[in-house]
User: Fold this.
Amino acid sequence: MNSSGAKSETYLSVLENLLEIGRKVLAEEDIDRVLATAMDGAIRLSGAERGIIILFDHDGQPRFHTARNLDREDLEEPRNEISRSIIRKVRKEKQPVFLKNAREDPEFRASKSVRGLKVLSVICLPLIHDEDLVGAVYLDNRSFRSVFKPETFHFAQKFAEFISVAAAHALEQQRLRDNVHALQRDLHEQYSFGEIIGRHPAMTEILRLVAQVADTEATILIQGESGTGKELIARALHQNSSRGDRPFVAINCGALQESLLESELFGHVKGAFTGATEDKIGWFERAHGGTIFLDEVGEMSPALQLKLLRILQTGEFSPVGSTVVRRTNARVLAATNRNLRRLVDEGRFREDVFYRLNVIVLDVPPLRDRASDIPLLAQHFLDQHGRKYGKRGLRLSPQARAQLLKYPFPGNVRELENMMERAVILCKSDKIGVEELPLNLSPPHSSNNAEATATTFRAAKQRLLAEFERSFILDRLAESGGNISQAARASGMDVKNFYEKIKRHGIDPKAMKAGE
Assistant:
C-alpha cells in the first residue's frame, strides 16, 4: 500500500474511533460522566494504562477532574499518578508532549516524578478552547515503552480537540460551584445564622433571603413542616436585624387554649377573669422594640386573628379585661406547618390577616428534600451531644450513614437530633453503628404502606421497587466507602448504569465517605 493509502487508512481509523467515543458521549447528560466516558474510550483505544484530565483554573492550581484506569475505575489519588514536570511543560508551552520512553528522554529522565512513577510511554496534550488553555489530557503506560504509535498520537490530538469544549464547560461548572461555596462562606461570615446547618442549595437560598430581608421591618411568614427549624430561621432574622440586641419572644399558638393564649399575647388586668389576681404584661408588650415570633399561627381562633390584625395594622392592642389602648413596636414573624391559603378558602383563617402575614414568605424544605445535609447535621448533633455527655470524637459508620439516608425523617431535623442524642447515650465506642440507631428506622411509607397508599397494583409495585433499589444502592455505597466503581462491581452492574441509578435517586456518594 502506498503512503497516501496508509495515511487515508490512519485518518479513517481515527475517525471511526472518535465516532465510537462520540456515540457513547452523546448518551450522557452529566458533564462529569461525559468526560469519564470519553476518557474510558481513549484509554482503551490508545493502549494507555491510565488517563487523566486536568483543568487549569484561574487560581493557578491544577484540578484533577477525571482520572481513570484500564478497568474504568476512578484513580484514588490522581495527583500522585502523574508526572508534574510533563504537565508543567505542556502548560507553559501549550504544546503536546509525545514520549516513547520518558525514563530515557534527555529532558525528563532526571525528573523525580518520571523516575518515581517509572513512567515509560507518555502522551500529554493541551486542551484549547477559544484560544484559551483550559486544561490538559495525560495518557501513560508504565509497563511498555513505545506503546503509543504516531497514529495513536494523531488520535490523541483529535481526541483533545473533541473534548476541549466539554472540558471548558466542566471548568465553568467548577467555577460556579466555587462561587456557591464562596457565597455560603460569605453569608456565614457576614451574618449570624446560629444553629442553622446546611449546604443544600435550598438552604443556601433560604440563608440568602434571610440576609436580604433581615434588616427590614417587613412581616415574614415562615412555612415548613414541624421540626424543620422554623424558629431557628426566625431567630436568624432577628439577630441580623437592627433589633438584634432587643428582646426576641417566641410563642406556640397551637400549644395553648384560646383564653390562655389571648392572655399570654396581650396581657390582662386584675379581675379580668377568675384567677387574674394581678395585672400581667403580655408578650407583645414585652417584645416592644424587638421581635415576636408566632409559631403555628394557623391554629389561632378567628377572634384572636382579629386582634392580631389590629396589631399588624396599627400596633395597637388592649389587654384582656381592659379598654385602655396600648401600643407596641414589635416586629412580627409568623410560622405555620399548615396551608394558610387553603384555610382561607375553607373559611378557617381570615383573608385580611393572611395578606398581612404573607408579605415575604420563606419556605423551609423538609429534611427528606435535602438529604445531602443529613450526614452534616448528624455529625453536628453528635459533636453537640458528645460534649454534653462527655463523649468526644464520635463518628457515624458508613452503614449507619446509609441507614440515615434511607429514612424519610417525618419529624425532620428535630427527629434527627433526638436520634443522635440517643446514639450518643447508647454508644460504647467512638463509632456510631447501626445498632445505636432506633430499631424501627425503616421508612414509614414502605412495605405494606406502599400497597395501602397506591391506587393500583402497578403503582404499588413501582414504589416498592424504587424503595428497594434506593436501599440497595445506599448499602453498596456504604460498603465501598462511597467508591462508585467498587459499588457497581459489587452490584454486578456497569458503572454507567449504577451512576444513573445514583442520579435518579438523588444520592450523594460523597456522603458515604468516612469523615464527611
Observations:
- The first strand starts at residue 50 and ends at 56.
